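Archive entry: two folds, one per protein. Generate the first.
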Amino acid sequence: MAKVKKVIIEDEKELRKAVHSDNYIYVILLLVCVFINIEMFSVSPRWITFFDTIPKKVVFIAFQILFVILLFFWVRKKKKIITILLNGEKTKGKITDSVSIRSNSSSTTICVFTYTVHGKEYTVSSKDKYGSKGDTYKIIFETNNPENSIVYEHLKSNVQALISYE
């Protein structure tokens, strides 16, 4: 059974900043969508004349709705990471299964990591480029909800630098 260690985050504000460090991309995309909406529904568009028919407007609005839905799930994922790190403990887990998903141009491997907390076995799945069955990884789980977990090695390096253990 692996040792469980309490995760220590010295600076919560810095952690939030590190986790959300790529927010600017979404803000820029959101501003572009707002600009296009204003232009698209203007009586006399000055910049964009592509949206001159209703079907093109409907397609663009559908893409915007999809963007907002993806943004919602992205924000939810970031909040989950912060919650786990602020209320978490570290243990060791192993890759017990993996599935490669191939398309014409790329390949993604989804690994299943198994870890044990208080005698009960849990799993978490995550993308992993280099791992193979049996490899050991650090798993950080939420103390009050051990099935809510993340793989430490898959966090960005600036987030990893903020984590220490008791």
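Generate the second and append.
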Amino acid sequence: MKRFLLNIVFASAIIVFSGCTHTTYIADSKNPEVEFSEDGGLLWRGRFIELEELPDLLEDAGVDKKSQIDIRVSERMRSLKAPRVLLFILRRAGYTRGVLVTKKKAYSSSTMPPPKQPVQQPQPQQRRKIRYK
């Protein structure tokens, strides 16, 4: 009986703590973003798409043809052939501001004051001699 209860406890713990994982698209940029994975697949809002599908998806999303489109490329991607083809497809569809970008950078600031610099003693100034003619 104890073993049966122990199995139920472990099974319920696995179910409770494993949880379901999912991806939610969060627009954290003012520019629409697409991303190339390292194997050359194109991600739009968390799902893989074909290169030719992107202009239609951008149009459906209401992206203006004059707005900048960030195309994120991994630094470890060996060939830029697929991103260049995507730029050509976007230009052919009227989107002229496709930009290849790498990893996003985040900057931080500190609320602490800067460290105090050592106080330098002022050098005694020599008085100029007054000459009379």
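Annotation attached to the second fold: The CA atoms of residues 61 and 85 lie 22 Å apart. The radius of gyration is 30 Å.
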